[in-house]
Amino acid sequence: MTASNDEKWINKKISRRDMLKLTGIGAAGVAIGASGLGGVMKAMGYDVFEPVADSTTARNKVDFYGTHQSGIVTPVQTNIYFASLDVLFTSKKELQELFKQWTPLVVRLMNGELMVDLTTNTRVPTGDTGEAEGLNASNLSITIGVGPSLFEKLGIQHLKPAELKDLPHFPKDQLQKEYTGGDICIQACADDPQVAFHAVRNLVRAASGKVEIKWSQAGFNSFPTGGGTPRNLFAFKDGTGNPTAEKDLNKVVWVDKGWLKGGSYLVARKVQMHLETWDRTSLKDQEATFGRYRDSGAPFGKKKEFDDFDVEAKDSNGEYIMPDTSHVHLARKSGARILRRSYSYASGVMTNTGAHDAGLMFISFQKDPAQFTTVQNSLGRMDKMNEYITHRGSAVFACFPGVQKGSYLGEALFNAL
Ligand SMILES: C=CC1=C(C)c2cc3[nH]c(cc4nc(cc5[nH]c(cc1n2)c(C)c5CCC(=O)O)C(CCC(=O)O)=C4C)c(C)c3C=C
Ligand SMILES: [Fe+2]
C-alpha cells in the first residue's frame, strides 16, 4: 500500500461489519468476504464438514454428543463467558450452514483441541487465536440457543415455539438494551476463564461477517475447598434448592414436544447487586432477606443446608419461621421450579455512582420460560432482596436438544422447515 493509500484507508469510515471482517480474518478475510461462511471457514483452514468425535483421552473433558446439550445439567464450572449474538443474514440456508459448520468446531473446542491444526504459514492469520494453547479442556461446555428475534428475522415465525417469547416487563425492571435480547446465545462454561473466552471468541471469529456480538458477560463461581455450594457476592450459598433427581429434571428442565424435544429454555438476567448497601446491613437482616443462615446455608429453623423445610411453618407466636418477605419463601411458594446455573460478575465500577458494577449473571433452565415468570412474579415487589438488587439485562433462548454423531446443532429445527 502506498502512503497516500494508507491515508485513504485510515480516513475511510469503517462499518462494524467491515471491522469484524478485518479483526476476524485480516486481509484474507477481505479477499474472501463475499464467498459466504463456508468460504471464510475454508480459507481459515477449518475442515468444516468433517465430523469430529469426542476425545476419549482428553483430560477434564465434558462430552459433546448426547441426548442433551452440555452446560445445562453439567456440574457447574468455575467460569462462564456468555455471549448474545445478532445474525447479519436473513436466509434459513445461512443459518443452517452456520450451525453445521460450528458443530465440529464446538467438539474440537470441548476436546481441548485447537480450532484447526497449527499452520506453518506465517503470512496468513492463524486458524485458532491461540490463547488456549497448553491449557486442557477444562471441562468446557458449550450451550447454543436461539432467541425469539431470530425467527422474525428469518421469516420462520411458524417454527417459533409458542413458549419462546420475550419475557414480560416486571415491576422493578430497569433493563438496558445493551444487555437485552439477541438472536443466538453461546454459553461457554469452563474451569478456566481463558478457555471459556477462547471458545466464544473463536466461534464468533469463524462466523465473521455472519454474526456480531450484541452483548456478553463473563462470570465466576468459587467452590469451597473439598466441594460444596458456591457463595454469591452476598456471601450466601447459591444453588441449594435446585432440582437434581432425574425425574425432577424431566419435569422441570427438558422440553418434551416438537422440534425442541430434549432441549431447554435458557433465561438470562443480568442482576446488579448493590454491595455497598448490603455491606451496611446487619447479618440478622441479611439472613432474613433469604430465610437461610449465611454460615450453614440451612433454612431458618433447621440445622443443615439441604434440610427440607415448610414455608408455611410458624413459631409459637404465630410468625412464619421463614419470613414471608424472604426470597426463598416467595420463590418456593410460587410452586414453579427452575434449574438455576448462575455466575457472579464483577465488571469494574458504575461510572455515575462509583459503586461496584457487580452482581449475578442469573441463568436458569426450564421446559417453559413461564416457570421463570411465575417465580419472578411471586418475588414481585415483596422480595426483601429487592432493596439490594436491580435487574439490568434480560434474554430468553431456546437451547437445542443434544446432538448425535453425524448430526449437527439444531438439525431438528431444519428438518421441521
Ligand atoms: C425468578 C427467579 C429468581 C431470580 C431472578 C433470583 C435472583 C437471585 N437469587 C439470589 C440468591 C439466592 N436465591 C436462592 C434461592 C432461590 N432463588 C430462586 C429464584 C430466583 N432467584 C429460586 C427458585 C430459589 C430456590 C427456592 C427454593 O425452593 O428453595 C438462594 C437460597 C439458596 C438456594 O436455594 O440457592 C439464594 C442465596 C440472588 C443473589 C439473586 C439475584 C441477584
Ligand atoms: Fe434466588
Topology as a string of helices (H) and strands (E): HHHEHEHEHEHEHHHEEEHEH
Q: Could you name the CATH topology of the domain at 3-152 and 179-228 and 408-415?
A: Alpha-Beta Plaits
Task: Let me know the number of strands.
Answer: 9
CATH superfamily of the domain at 3-152 and 179-228 and 408-415: Apc35880, domain 1
Q: What percent of residues are in strands?
A: 15-25%
Query: Please, how many helices?
Result: 12
- In whole angstroms, how far apart are the ends? 48 Å
**Shape descriptor:** globular
Radius of gyration over all CA atoms, rounded? 23 Å
Instruction: Give the integer mean of the pLDDT values.
Output: 91
Overall CATH class of the domain at 3-152 and 179-228 and 408-415: Alpha Beta
Oligomeric organization of the protein chains: single chain
Helices and strands in order:
Blueprint: H1 3-11, H2 16-32, H3 36-43, E1 79-87, H4 92-110, E2 141-146, H5 148-153, E3 184-190, H6 193-206, E4 211-220, H7 246-252, E5 264-273, H8 275-279, H9 283-290, H10 327-333, E6 339-340, E7 343-349, E8 356-366, H11 369-379, E9 389-399, H12 411-415
Antiparallel strand pairs: 1-3, 1-4, 2-3, 2-9, 5-8, 5-9, 6-8, 7-8
Helix pairs in contact: 2-3, 3-4, 10-11
The structure holds ligand L6N33NVT and fe (ii) ion (FE2).
